[in-house]
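Lab notebook, bench 4. Still working through the backlog of constructs that have no structural model yet. Next entry is a single chain of 540 residues. Request: give me the structure tokens for it.
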Amino acid sequence: MTSSGEPEREGARPQQDDDDDRRSVRSMAVGSSKTPSTSLHPRAASGTTRTLPTPPDLASAFSRPSPSTRSASESTFSTSSGLQESSTTMPALPNPPPLAPSSSQPQHSSSPSISTANSSSNSISRYPTSSSSSNLRSGGPAPPTSSIRSSRSSRVEGGAQPSPKPIRKPVMPKQIKEPIVPWNHAGSTDVPVAKTSSLYCSLTPMYGFPPPVLKAHTSTLVGDKIYVIGGASSSKGGCFGGVATFNIHTMRWDQLKDVKGESPPPIRAHTSTAIGHTIWVFGGGDEMTYSADMFAFNTLTHTWSLPKLDPSSPQPVPRRAHSASFLAPSSLVIFGGGDGHTALNDTWIFDTSTLTWREIISPPARDENGEVGREGGDAVKRGPVPDRRGYHSGHVVDGKLVIFGGGNGQKTFDTVEVLDLKTKVWHNISPPPDPSRSRKRAYHAAMVIGNLLFVVGGHDSKQYQSDILCFDLRRKKWTTKHLAGNLYPGRGYHSSTFADGRIFILGGSDETTFFSDMWTIDLGASAGLAFLPPIMIHLD
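Model written out:
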């Protein structure tokens, strides 16, 4: 019985023993760490709670205990409140296999020993005290969760130690080898690496349902699809009468099955020009027929229509092998071609909003002094109208019609001539001929990208070419663009379309072979030309 008269509980220890224990714990803390320990419990200041010693190292506090210290660690443990509980025997759990070392985590000792505030102490601190907590808050190294689980599950009943499992190597991703460069028509894959300033040519992978092998057809970009209309077919012996589409992203061909309306007859050597979601098809023909009809194809509804024109208004003669260019906001500019009897050099504008034609008649050619000059004279600077021609290329740039190349059966041209649609005056902006390289072209394909006129393939009066020419419309001179990769076979009567930084070349012929392939010319660094502001062509 205690001094207060209360009966002494069974198992209770005298107060003196508690004081001795408290002094023993404090002495162990002083001997193990220089940092004074503080209590984690709010009642520690009142003397009702015991304080725990601060572990000198968090990493060692969570390491695996050795067999020599296992029996001591199994006997007692301290709670977070600092109160020592009665001796508790923990059930034995198997040791986990050692973790594979990682370069991103600190290396933990593989020795099965555990370090606490005092190696002779039979208690393990389950939670960090003030010094270790500040280390965590300051961004210091924290013990991995896997190590905590290992220390808690390391108490094995009976002390059985299973053999460690082999360390598992990290799974490495399968190496993706560099793709083989696109093949060329000769079958070689030994192609040098292209510079970023170069143009790169390769055979285009494609699948689906392509059109028949064609020449003298048209390819028109609307959205992300290229629409192929008309053209002479080698397999059927006539002209292609359907509409095929090529998706520039998926590389898939499809032939439209739900086409309706009044469609044009099978034609070739016609023109197709997109204005919005409508493709306007003019001229063309087959065999001995020539057309002057203007058809419209709606790419949204897949519907053909033949607008009714005023028969009393002037209209161009039937033709094919001409050029057609878009003139904002809703017009087409037609130049040249042939009517089956002779080549042409007239210029017409068709307004798609009013369905009317008007002809551009240029004034007489004049020399530098303003005098009327002779056609072909050396002193003529403005005018005359370009020579009659067909199978040339035409584009509207800065409100001016740019004509290049073409032929008339007797001559192949290499001149760049510009028609100012406001003054109706022609200007020849070609530089002097280069005797080292011929730039004559007919049956070619061309497009304007930024300030450059790209000319693809064609016939130079001697043979079909597989190169690309570039004319700078701002500086009025030819420039050189290196074409790397696998060159496409020389051809004419083909089509080319610029889309997504690439030029797509389809079909064509070299008089002996009809080509069914498609080639891609990646512009590389030159693709940024398409995003430059519209250029201005200054004429003298």
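Notes after review: Residues 3 and 411 are 133 Å apart (CA to CA). The chain has five helices and 33 strands. Flag for follow-up if needed.
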